Amino acid sequence: MPINLNEQSEVKSLSSKATTKSSPTIVEGGFQIKGVEMAGRPLYLDMQATSPVDPRVLDAMLPFFLNQYGNPHSRTHMYGWESDDAVEVARGQIAALIGANPKEIFFTSGATEANNVAIKGVMHFYKDKKRHIITSQTEHKCVLDSCRYLQQEGYDVTYLPVKKDGMIDVAHFEKAIRKDTGLVSIMAVNNEIGVIQPLSELGDICRKNKIFFHTDAAQALGKIRLNVDELKIDLMSLSGHKIYGPKGIGALYMRRRPRVRVEPQMSGGGQERGIRSGTVPTPLAVGMGAACAIAMQEMAYDEKYIGKLTKQLHKELSSKLEGIVVNGSIEHRYVGNLNISFSYVEGESLLMGLKEVAVSSGSACTSASLEPSYVLRALGVDEDMAHTSIRFGVGRFSTKEEIEKAVELTVSQVTKLRKMSPLWEMVQEGVDLKTIKWTQHE
Ligand SMILES: Cc1ncc(COP(=O)(O)O)c(C=O)c1O
């Protein structure tokens, strides 16, 4: 249901405390949020950040908010039993999507927690024999930070560089293995550039060397085919909200044979067989299960549909604009991700001008400056180009019309900014900028 902003503002005028800095305020002809005026809601092309809940998922969840609200760990009455049954169905749906046994699935609050449990948990459990971890420079922050935490405890971490296209160099990876390597953590699909890592080759090498193989599959679940046995994956982190499920739920897959052990990161009532204490949130677990069941049925359709829209986006932008570069491998890429840099455009201005399209940028906004993304930096993308990168995330509910609008807005903004760029003018006049010797004025 669309939000009625007039209703919202009425509520706010009754309670000024409800007004937050980022709440929209009504202005003539539209509304203003964070200092930007808009006539309607921006179109959403940021599916790697999060996805809308599929209405079928919401339908599955609602009874567990309203009538079936028992604690799934209550053993003495029907309320508990029915919630427990629903959680187990969801566990089975998640397991089915990755070819696992339901007993190998442990609910968490999301992929961040699953990554923490996998990385810290494995290394803490095997601390007497294994002191080394291999990961990559382009992992999600929660993997990198878990590794840094372990470094502070005295473990060694190898942060593998990636090739220009964002892929791990498998030969290089193999060389990094040591006798005391206890864990390899390489993501399945990169959240910024959509690159799919060679999981099968990495899994083979890990199994041969008897090293546990963990993959952060937050961006891969339900998007690409994942089978834990075929890929020889021992631990896998999953998230609900990237696959049209609810936020606040995820899961960790942990292999039973050969068995992986972890030290739990949370003390408590011993739920989830002691791996993750805390009441399992039934509606959220049911939602994630339903999202997985839908993905299992519709993955092939989604891939085709989303792939077509992304291709349309890429084709139209390329035909209407010169000087655009796709970041990351085109060949080994999730079809719903398009990360593009626009040359001779000022990054911050591009972002500010694109407020009508909800996309992500290759710059992380810190208080004082725009830092180029560490992922793009790892690929060797020039700072200028990293600053002007936009991640378009297309999803199941994106439409052809939204893509057309996004193209129109992006083309007009880039063209406008280039008209103001002296460098662009020089390039148009045929000047090779690389031949220019710039002098610095004191
Ligand atoms: C690759 C990757 N890993 C982990 C996460 C964290 O997931 P969650 O929000 O479920 O904690 C994300 C989400 O941004 C992600 O893209």
Automatic annotation (TrEMBL):
<dbReference type="InterPro" id="IPR015422">
    <property type="entry name" value="PyrdxlP-dep_Trfase_small"/>
</dbReference>
<dbReference type="GO" id="GO:0046872">
    <property type="term" value="F:metal ion binding"/>
</dbReference>
<comment type="similarity">
    <text>Belongs to the class-V pyridoxal-phosphate-dependent aminotransferase family. NifS/IscS subfamily.</text>
</comment>
<keyword id="KW-0479">Metal-binding</keyword>
<keyword id="KW-0808">Transferase</keyword>
<dbReference type="GO" id="GO:0051536">
    <property type="term" value="F:iron-sulfur cluster binding"/>
</dbReference>
<dbReference type="InterPro" id="IPR016454">
    <property type="entry name" value="Cysteine_dSase"/>
</dbReference>
<dbReference type="InterPro" id="IPR015424">
    <property type="entry name" value="PyrdxlP-dep_Trfase"/>
</dbReference>
<dbReference type="InterPro" id="IPR020578">
    <property type="entry name" value="Aminotrans_V_PyrdxlP_BS"/>
</dbReference>
<keyword id="KW-0408">Iron</keyword>
<feature type="compositionally biased region" description="Low complexity">
    <location>
        <begin position="12"/>
        <end position="22"/>
    </location>
</feature>
<feature type="domain" description="Aminotransferase class V">
    <location>
        <begin position="44"/>
        <end position="405"/>
    </location>
</feature>
<dbReference type="Pfam" id="PF00266">
    <property type="entry name" value="Aminotran_5"/>
</dbReference>
<protein>
    <recommendedName>
        <fullName>cysteine desulfurase</fullName>
        <ecNumber>2.8.1.7</ecNumber>
    </recommendedName>
</protein>
<dbReference type="GO" id="GO:1990221">
    <property type="term" value="C:L-cysteine desulfurase complex"/>
</dbReference>
<feature type="region of interest" description="Disordered">
    <location>
        <begin position="1"/>
        <end position="22"/>
    </location>
</feature>
<dbReference type="GO" id="GO:0005739">
    <property type="term" value="C:mitochondrion"/>
</dbReference>
<dbReference type="InterPro" id="IPR000192">
    <property type="entry name" value="Aminotrans_V_dom"/>
</dbReference>
<dbReference type="GO" id="GO:0044571">
    <property type="term" value="P:[2Fe-2S] cluster assembly"/>
</dbReference>
<dbReference type="InterPro" id="IPR015421">
    <property type="entry name" value="PyrdxlP-dep_Trfase_major"/>
</dbReference>
<keyword id="KW-0663">Pyridoxal phosphate</keyword>
<dbReference type="GO" id="GO:0031071">
    <property type="term" value="F:cysteine desulfurase activity"/>
</dbReference>
<keyword id="KW-0411">Iron-sulfur</keyword>
<dbReference type="GO" id="GO:0030170">
    <property type="term" value="F:pyridoxal phosphate binding"/>
</dbReference>
<dbReference type="InterPro" id="IPR010240">
    <property type="entry name" value="Cys_deSase_IscS"/>
</dbReference>
